[in-house]
Amino acid sequence: MIVLGIDPGSRVTGFGVVRREGSKLMALGEGRITVPGADDPTARLCALAGEVEKLVERYRPDAVVLESLFHGVNSRSLIVLAQARGAILAAIGRAGLAATEYSPAEVKRAVTGNGRADKTQVARMVRLLLGLDAVARSADATDALAAAICFAQRQRLDALKSPPDRSSVGSGCR
């Protein structure tokens, strides 16, 4: 199973791709999508959607997972982030995939065992779980890899509990 994890952002979006084979996890790719700082939100959102479509074409994921919105104090930032998530979700839907969402606390708990772990702890556990070298990674990419790990681990446990449910697969928007 190949899982594309995405840590949405209005200017920088992290991504991480993880393959699960049995109980083994391996990183296939990671990085950041940086969209132009244009004042035109349509250009920015279009560029973001285009980059997500390229990721889907390149890695052919079986699943896509996003961190859910963090409810901050600044409503303007929340709106801009929601727009970016909309562009990401549209790109995923166009590819015929569904997106799963986990809260930051759920992702941290799945990776570190502590829903309040800091970014350093998450990065260390991501590195250990995926057998990565100690090269510094962006927090955006690390968070996206953590989301993909969370999904892969949960799917494995859910598969042990019940047969897979295919009814939630996206119908695509064309």
Can you tell me the residue ranges where pLDDT is under 50 for at least 5 consecutive residues? none
How much of the sequence lies in strands comes to 15-25%
What spatial form do the alpha-carbon principal axes imply? globular
Q: Topology as H/E string? A: EEEHEHEHHH
Span between termini: 25 Å
- How many separate helices? 5
> Major beta sheet, specifics?
5 strands, mixed
Proportion of helical residues: 40-55%
Instruction: Give the total of beta strands.
Output: 5
Q: Record the strand order, biggest sheet.
A: 3-2-1-4-5
| Rg (CA only) | 16 Å
Mean pLDDT: 89
Secondary-structure-based class equals alpha/beta
Task: Explain briefly what this protein structure is.
The protein has 174 residues and is of the alpha/beta class. The model has no long low-confidence stretch (mean pLDDT 89).
How would you portray this structure in words?
The longest helix is centred in the C-terminal third of the chain and has 23 residues, at 139-161. Strands 3-2-1-4-5 form a 5-stranded mixed sheet. It has 5 helices and 5 strands, in the order E-E-E-H-E-H-E-H-H-H. The radius of gyration is 16 Å and the shape is globular. The relative contact order is 0.21. With 174 residues, it is of the alpha/beta class.
